[in-house]
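Self-study notes.
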Amino acid sequence: MPFKRVRSQKVSAIAAEQVAEAIQCGDFPVGTKLPSEFELAEQMGVSRPSIREALSALQAMGIIESKPGSGNYVLRVPSETDESRTAHLIESEAGCLEVMEARETLEPPVAALAAGKRPGDGIGRLRSALEEMYAHADRDDFDAYFESDKRFHSILAELAGNPLIRASLAPLIETMNQKVYREFTRHYYLRNVSDLRHVVDLHGEILDAIEAGDERTAYERTVEHWSRMREIWEA
C-alpha cells in the first residue's frame, strides 16, 4: 500500500519539525541565530509555550543551543532521521506543562502531610540532599544538581509515611529524567547560578517547615515552587 498511517501530533512536535526542516533547507546555517520565540510563535500561529517545548526538544537533540540573554543558535544540520526523532521525543514524553500541573497539584499536600508527621529520622537525609543541591548550584553543575533535586523530592514523598503516596509519586518524579523537561528546566527555570540558588533556598524553606511541623508553610512554599515554574513556562 502506498499510504502512511495517519497520526495526530502535538503542536510542539509540528513546530520542532518545521524548525528542523528550515535548518536542513539552509534557511538558518550553522552558527546563525534563530528567530525569537515570539517571532516563531507568530509565524506558526502557536503559543510560546509550544515553541519552548519544541526548542527544548531541539536542544536535547543537539541541533540548537540556547545562549542566555542572546537567543537560540544552530549547532548542526539535522538529518531527516533527526526530524522524525525530535517529533517522536516530544510525543513519547509527558508534556512539560502536564508535568508541572501534576506536580503542582500533588506535591504541596504531600509536603504538608510530611510536616504534620514531623519525621525526625528522615530530616537528616532531606537536609543531605539539600546540601548537595547547594554545592552543585554553586559550581553551576546542572546535571549533578538535577540528580540531587530529584533525590530531595523522592525523600519528601517517603516522609509522608504512606506507601501508596510514595508509589503514586514515584513515576511523576521520574519525569525529571525526560530530555525535553530537563532542557526546558536548564534553559528557562534554572538558567544560572543565581536562579539555582533561589530555587535551593525555596527547597530549604520547605525543609525547615517540615522540620518545624508547619504544615501550612510547607504547603505554600511547595505551591510557590511550582507556580513560579509555570509562570516562566507561560510567560
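Second protein, same conventions, sequence then structure:
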Amino acid sequence: LSYDIGECRLGFKPVSWAACTRKNSRLLRVKLKNGQTLRLTADHKVYTDKGWIEAQHLTKTHRILAIHR
C-alpha cells in the first residue's frame, strides 16, 4: 500500500524505489495481534485507521491496516 502524491490517493502498486537511508538506527518492534512482528525505525510511517502515524507514536488503540494474504 502506498500513497500516490500525483493522484492524491492510496493505491496498491509495485515498489519503484527503495534505499537504505540510515545505517545502525535503532529498530522498534511492533507485535501484531496475529503474532507477526514489524521491525522498523521510530520515524517510519505506518498506515492506520487514524491515518499515517510514525511508529514511535503508535499505541494499542491504533489499528494498522495491511494486506492479508
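Instructor comment on the second fold: The mean pLDDT is 83.
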